[in-house]
Hints:
single chain, five-stranded antiparallel beta sheet, 15 strands
Amino acid sequence: xxxxxxxxxxxxxxxxxxxxxxxxxxxxxxxxxxxxxxxxxxxxxxxxxxxxxxxxxxxxxxxxxxxxxxxxxxxxxxxxxxxxxxxxxxxxxxxxxxxxxxxxxxxxxxxxxxxxxxxxxxxxxxxxxxxxxxxxxxxxxxxxxxxxxxxxxxxxxxxxxxxxxxxxxxxxxxxxxxxxxxxxxxxxxxxxxxxxxxxxxxxxxxxxxxxxxxxxxxxxxxxxxxxxxxxxxxxxxxxxxxxxxxxxxxxxxxxxxxxxxxxxxxxxxxxxxxxxxxxxxxxxxxxxxxxxxxxxxxxxxxxxxxxxxxxxxxxxxxxxxxxxxxxxxxxxxxxxxxxxxxxxxxxxxxxxxxxxxxxxxxxxxxxxxxxxxxxxxxxxxxxxxxxxxxxxxxxxxxxxxxxxxxxxx
Length: 409
């Protein structure tokens, strides 16, 4: 080998020939010898040797885990299953468990309840209201909540959870509390039948009989509307929730003072007047009480959906009827026809003037009656001889009871 190297060392590279055919250069032999020396030096590198050693250890460990994974381990697979059974989670139907949401999808959410397997919360069990995705009600990964076990998936033995059941119990408790406090609540009408309508209150579906609705309206006319309601019966065991609109309206009307100004919305027009919704109460604005000027066609002044200010003239609490007026709010006769905006701007001022005029008229009437008291034998009550202003008392020559029969309401 040394002789061969000595032989090559005497050679010299000749210039590249211009001839198209060139002989191979003999310089490649020394390059091959240099490469051999470099490889030997790399093999002696301590870093390379350490990497090679670690590689051999890893391959040995991999083969041992693949061929004999439990070799030298005192804890067996049987011990593992025995421990799981010993600390198995309570999975009885109706039991309450605490869990953490860690994944959501279009159908519900996966919940970690520290059991053998994760539990699932379907979207229909996520809320007492109808939702399309659990995120609509704030169910996101990381949420910690208390759930109720309502079922079990036979495929993988995972548990099915519910938040709706807990909310359902809380809703019944809330309704019992509102009934005890005799509170007026708002209920949205979502359906009906020949006996009444179905309204949603506190997430529960309650029944409102037609006999307990203050207006003569069909179920279709009340659909999607909110009604003021009071609780008549709250029975969770029988799943009976009965409500009354008439009782709520009676209490609301008790708070309406004659001469007070309220904001209302035109519901419908009739030849004899317009029905105005004043916060859930249906009042009648008679055609003669729209303006001092004669109104031949109500549609030229009002349209369904219009918002306006009206004054309370009278109300019959037993029948649930309220008489309204915009005529009394006109600064000058005919303003309701020519400039209704001015009427609404001056409404409170005109109503105050009206109340003062009525108070003066009552005072004068009482003074006149007092002069005849010895002869007539009349005695004054706490409300005076005339008492409070009643629907039967004419005002400015207009009968305040000039309203259609209750059946038309």
